[in-house]
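Hi R.,

Quick one: here's the Arylesterase sequence you asked about.
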Amino acid sequence: MRVLMVAMLCFAAGHAVNARADTLLVVGDSLSAAHGIERDAGWVNLLRQRLSSQHQVINASISGDTTSSGAARLPELLKRHSPDIVLLELGGNDGLRGLSPQQMKLNLRDMIEKSQAAGARVLLLGIEIPPNYGASYTDAFRGVFRQLSEEYDAPLVPFILDGVALQDAMMQDDGIHPTAEAQPVILDNVWEGLAPMLKRASTTTND
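And here's the predicted structure, written out as tokens:
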């Protein structure tokens, strides 16, 4: 009887280890840093609430970040948090500044490779830029996310502001940043790409 109880305790302890909450690391710019609104109202915090205690959500987003600055600080974030999933939401500031899509691609590629090498899966959160930049630039910009998604088998949310960007009531006066009312829509956009990854993680853990 004593041997049986010890075995049951060991079995339960093993399952407790396997059932640890996954860590999600969000590396983004002002769209994920809740610029201009209460931080608690931002989509990242809403994600944290939706997942409850099932997962740990770390928001390492900084307003104004480009892919270059994000790539520079990512290694320390990976070392500190050991994430299971990295959500990359960068590129908007590269576009607004007219920076090279090719350099943006190299920066994002570096971030994807470093994340995957650290054992994390990557979700790309794409962004669109206004058409006044010219068709060739906007096409090249948009293509970066699609190409990297295919190259690294990384799920892609093509446009994180889908259903938001052209709605005046959902955008702040600057026309760039979404309002608090828009955050649940943004979360739903992210969720479409993230939910299958969470299911996969759960299945892997149970196996």
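Residues 20-206 form a domain with the Rossmann fold fold (CATH 3.40.50.1110).

Cheers,
M.
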